[in-house]
């Protein structure tokens, strides 16, 4: 069985962090598993963890009044779920649901924020990673806003 | 320049706005073509539009077009029934050059209706599968209901050693696949960038993003091929409607390599 240290060190989100830094993060982390259909969190609940997805697929769902729930994004193996722990009031903005069986490492947000406060270099390294993922998600959302497939070409 | 009459042999609804028509020439002569080429397809008395050939290049006796209803002429074409006669000019233009990918990996990346012009390329890959390394088909669609050739995609994946990935812009919770931008599929695809041929078709903005992603992965721009669309009218390089600076897309394209058009793609109003 692989240790949390190995799981975090191997994950693309933490690529480039040295061993001692990863060890520090291990203290904030737990291994979690979800069956297909189970929720990692619900909209409005306290955003208390960062999920580092090791296996499976997580859907971010949003409830649209009067309509069925919609999936706005999926996160796969190698991705991370959850930013709301970074910004007050620390509440989830979407539901996160395991589409398939999901294995992840859940990093406690309070612990993580405290370590970042104690060690600005760690904080900066993590913020760079978080910003990178957010940048790609924002690009994806903006391009999809254009609804490119909705018009144009006939065949 | 005169259209040849073709009879509609069969029609198939692909999505709520897209139909596939199977046609055969009234004179019995087939229409040999290269994947990526198009014809000028005419609904008599209504008009003529450029439509890529989506059929099997090994079956020139059957001309197959997948058409999206985006206006007057295409609405009439989509409403064609078995037995109707349509006019066909062509085939025209430069195709994908699929065989240039032999000995290496091939990425087929399609956004929306862009899978139609690529279907012929995939059929060529399937027919000579052992000449190629990894073959990936990456398809982005607006919603689950807009995924083109759904059953055929699964058949390619299960029967032809093709890696298939589909992603949609948004979905109902019943969808178990991926939701996001088609570029996100590149990250999960295993290929040898230096020996990869990438065939890309979709909205031009999407192709720019995909092309940037491919180059970032190390695919040489000369091995990234895009199918471009402008307002094609004559199909033979006379009228100039489809001009893209130094190119007339009906004869120089519609498929051009990224290194040939990268500069033009960044120019507004071109």
From TrEMBL, chain A:
SUPFAM superfamilies: cAMP-binding domain-like. Residues 13-82 form the Cyclic nucleotide-binding domain. This is Cyclic nucleotide-binding domain-containing protein. It comes from Nocardioides koreensis.
